[in-house]
Amino acid sequence: LYAWMRNARDNTPVKFDETSQCWKVYRYEDVHHVLTDWETFSNDMCRIVPEHHFTRGNLSTMDPPVHKQLRGVISQGFTPRTLAQLAPRIEELVKELLDEVGDRNEIDIARDLSYQLPLNVISELIGVPREDRGILQRTADAQLALTCENPADSDFVVQVQKAMEELQAYIKDLISVRRAAPRDDLISKLVTARVEDRALDEEEIVNFTVLLLLAGHLTTMSLLGNMMLTLSEHPDQLAEVRADRSLVPNAIEEVLRYRTPVPEGGRVTNRDVELGGTVIPANKMVLCSLISANRDEREFPSPDTFDIRRGSNPQLAFTTGIHYCLGAHLARLEAKIALNAVLDRYAQLNLTEIAWYQSHSLCNPKHLTFDVQRA
Ligand code: HEM
Q: I need a labelling partner for 57 at 20 to 30 A (CA). Which of 234, 240, 284, 345 fits?
């Protein structure tokens, strides 16, 4: 895949893809340009892909000025300062999960930690009680079972639809509960929010909440799994991080670059536009390859080398511009706390087994089993 992308960057950096009927963009500079020029490259993808699962009320499919207003409603819940207050709670959640592993000398990081932690964190932020998290798991599992090979009408797709309907019905109930008695959680913020001088309707709140749940869970799960995997593949760098914890943030940025969780970011052209020497007509879907941009040799020296001591690392895993991932600081915080806790608890970590989800949209380990020795 990486060799194929290098070839695409060199020879067909902006290319129409017959299979997906989209324009694909591979170079860092072009991807960066598309993501920042929101006047030309719109997020209103619903207008050309009506069956797209992104829907009304969802930040990802909005343009200014509505996008800015809605983002403002909940962005204060995700600033570094607010998150610093959340850190002790995340530390507790990590400890709880590692305590469940107990004194076993084996841990499946993917199952025991990376799947659970982001689910628990985002559920608490949104206000989904612990006893109701089975519904979220069913939706996440159905999404993870979807692969490129699943035909559109397969059982897998039916399962996703069923799980999604169950989740939407559940969130509708939760909205009524919070309307009656708001609390200090994100659902209550959305219920009481005013955008363009009106309250959000039920469908918009449901759609936004589903986005937060899925975006907050599966992507961060991917980061946590990839982090433990990549560091264990580079034992010298793992040892360096263990000895000098100030390297943890660099290690996380480099994992995001080297194993980018979300492969692509989508936009639709508002007009005919020239990009990388090619003209893309108006109203066409554009897919920016974040994986390829993050391995572009024009931006990153020796891009296929994992190097936590990389000087500058403007990786695009969270994209850039006005749609820059709202949960980026939260995901980094979870990864930092989880990595420190694992290193504190285990003096030895030897990877013994790995299995991948065959998911169509994420690069995600399903099992990452380590033989461990407690510190
Ligand atoms: C948007 C990646 C974690 C919430 C996005 C986008 C990407 C992304 C690629 C699309 C941005 C664009 O269209 O330009 C990731 C990765 C994560 C992560 C790699 C973890 C490692 C989270 C978390 C949340 C979250 C924990 C929790 C709330 C969102 C939201 C958007 C978004 C609300 C839409 C932002 C907008 O359109 O203004 N993320 N994300 N993400 N992400 Fe994340």
A: 284
319 lines ligand 1 (CB under 6 A): yes
Tell me the ipTM for this assembly.
0.99
- How do residues 114-141 score in pLDDT, each as one tens digit? 999 999 999 999 999 999 999 999 999 9
CA atoms within 13 A on the CB side of 272: 4
Tokens read off for 30? 């072009």
Indicate the helix (H) or strand (E) that contains 363: none
pTM of the predicted structure, to 2 decimals = 0.95
Give the pLDDT mean for 198-204: 89
Write b or e for each residue in 158-171: b if 16 or more Cβ atoms lie within 10 A of its Cβ, otherwise e: ebbeebbeebbebb
Residues 84-98 have pLDDT tens digits of 889 999 999 999 999
Assigned CATH for 63-234+317-374: 1.10.630.10
DSSP assignment, residue 168?
Answer: H
Q: Choose one of 120, 315, 326, 337 to mutate for the ligand 1 pocket test, by most ligand atoms within 8 angstroms of C-beta.
A: 326
Residue nearest to atom 30 of ligand 1 (CA): 326
What are the domain boundaries of the chain?
63-234+317-374
Q: Is the CB of 315 under 6 A from ligand 1?
A: no
User: Residue 53 has what pLDDT?
Assistant: 53
pLDDT for residue 368: 96
Q: Which atom of ligand 1 sits closest to the CA of residue 331?
A: 26
